[in-house]
Every structure is written in C-alpha cells, then in structure tokens.
Amino acid sequence: MHIPDGFISPQTYLPAAILSAGLLYMAYKKIDLDIEKIPFVAGVSALSFVMMLIIIPFPGGTSVHLSGIAIIALLFGAWTSFAALSLVLLLQALLFGEGGITSLSVNILALAFLGSFSATLFFSLFSKYSKKIAMFIAGFASIVISSIFVAFILGLQPIVASKSGSPLYFPFGWDVTFISVVVPHFFLGIIEAFVTLSVVTFLQNRYKDILSE
Amino acid sequence: MNEKSLFLIYLAVVLFLGVIHSEMVMVCVILLTLFINKKAKFKILKKAFLVILFFNATVTLSYIAYSYFVAVADPYAMVLINLRAFAITSLTFTLVHNVNLHKALEFHPLFSVLYSFTFAQITLLKSLLQEYYFGITSRGATLKKQINTKQLPPLLITLFGTMIYKSQEQTMALKSRGLL
What we know:
The complex is a heterodimer of chains A (about 210) and B (about 180).
Chain A: H1 10-30, H2 38-51, E1 55-58, E2 62-65, H3 69-76, H4 78-96, H5 104-126, H6 131-160, E3 162-163, E4 166-167, H7 174-206, H8 208-212
Antiparallel strand pairs in A: 1-2, 3-4
Chain B: H1 3-19, H2 23-37, H3 41-69, H4 77-98, H5 101-104, H6 109-138, H7 152-176
C-alpha cells in the first residue's frame, strides 16, 4: 500500500508533512518519549518492521505478509504504534525504497495514523460484545481505512495538479483508485483480521505481565 | 561537506524535482547520481529500477490501456512521472550509499538516538528471523521463505522476547553510563 515517489504532488505532500509532523510531536508528548523510553519505542518499531517480513501461506496458493499495524496498536496503544510505525516507514523509504520520501507524509497519515487509530477505535467499540470479534474488526479496519485514504489521495492528484488536462503525478481519478485500491485491500483486510486475532491473542496470553505494565 | 549539509541538499533537490516538470532535468539528475556513485552506480540504478518497477509498470500499462479507450490530453504523460520517480529513488539510494544517516540526522539528538536504536534492533531481529528460516529449512522443512501457522508462535516468542529483553538491556546500559 506504500505510495512510491513521483505520484504525489507538493500541493498534497507539503500540507500532509506539516500535519504528520504535528501529529508526531503530539505522539512523542503523549507517550512521554524520554531517553528511558527510546529503546522501547525503537524495539516496537523494529518488531513491526520484522513482522512485515514474515510471510504466511494461505489456502489457494496465495501468501501474505503481516502488516502488523493493528497488532502493534492493540498491544502497545495507538500513539506508541503511530510513533513506531512512522519510524518504520521512514527507514523503509530511505533504506529499501519501499514507499517514497516525498510520499512519506501521506504514508504516515494513511498507515501509521489512520491504521493505528482505526484499529484501537474499532477495538474499543466492539470489545464490550466480544474481544475476539473486536480484534478481528480492528485488524480488518486498519487495512481497509488506510486503503480508503490512499485511494482518496491518489485520486485527488489529477484534480489538484495537472497541466492542460495532462497529469503531472498520479494519472487516475477516484473512479479508478477506489476500485483498484480499496477492493483488493478489502480481501487482504479479512486475512489481516485473522492474523491480528491469532497473533494478538497469543502474545497477550504469553506476555500478560509485560503488556499489562 | 558534512553529512547534515548533504542531507539538507538532498531534501532541497527532492523538493525541486517535485515542482519541476521537465524530462531533461530528471535525466540530468539520474546522470548526476551515476557520476556521484562511481563504482556502485549500476548497483544503485538496478536497485532503484527494481524498487519502482512493480507500481510504476502497473500504473503505466493501465494508463496506456486507458488511453486506447478514452481520449487523454497527453499519451506520454507517464514518461515524466516515471522519470521523476526514478530520479528521486536513485537520489535517495545515493544519499544512503554515501552518507552516514546517523550523522545526517544529528541535527535533532532525539531523532538521531531513536534512529540508531531502531536500526540496531532491526539488524538484530532480522538476523534472528533469518536464522529461524535457516533452522526450519535445515530440519527438512520444504517451505522456503514462508512459515506455517504452527511455526509462527515460537517465532513470535523469539522476536517479542528478544525485543523486550534488548530494550530493557539498552535502558540499563544508558542508566549505567549516567545518561538517564
């Protein structure tokens, strides 16, 4: 879902950069990031980075890698997850070219912010009925809501930045982006929901003491 | 020139490439990265090409197909978009190849420390993951880079446990050196 360089206009990524910088500042204030907390946030970031490298086969010959957004958000809280995933996105952009440096702010808002907060929001909404159902919905929402935002931003590009009708950045409008981005992520969200449910349940049982601290 | 200045120049060039709509400028930047990287030039160009290949090829082919059915203002619009993507990605890899990012990010001490700790933990957890794959492969597992649901719990325990242990150890190390 990471957007590479060259597809997002400055009209979009500059306001997004200001917004994501403000949110990151808030996040570091909220989680009270002092020198004592740095190793922990760095550890969570590394864990989320490595989780994305784990590939799990699924029936029908397909395989999927963990995204870990909802997993990290449900285990450590939305603000910690947002701060950690933002760092992961920066490292991925710089070291591996996964997601561009110009689109980093949009990727941070889509994946780290909306992914983390939608997961915790849906979890808190549904946890009074059933924790397992809430985890499932949180995993699903973290992917689908992020993809809706990505589709919206991509589809916005021909409107905000084109020269005499010719696209300068991403060339397709919302009629194309919503179908091509959101529909595949709807199915991916179901797989992510199952993975989130099993991984979070397992880790919460195994590390009950540490996670309750 | 020091790392911080190079990093700022890189950001300025990236911003410049974002607002310039000239294929010639993009080609010049790509040639500049070739010149800067000398021995590693083909390695970096190949890496940049492979990184953007999937997304850009999908969008480009879709745009070409789309232009057959719907009249578009400029059928060659994707040339500029692809060149811009390639130029910025090549420039990013050039920066990472030539500049010590830890030093480049030193303008903000917290950011620099966070970067170093994260990078150290990623390296550690990545090597653990690789060892895990080697371990299951050497025990006769036929899966190559995938693991099944039965193999997932022990892997997660290893990764999660190592992360917690390492974080506590690093905090203790900072305390013992009087940094806290």
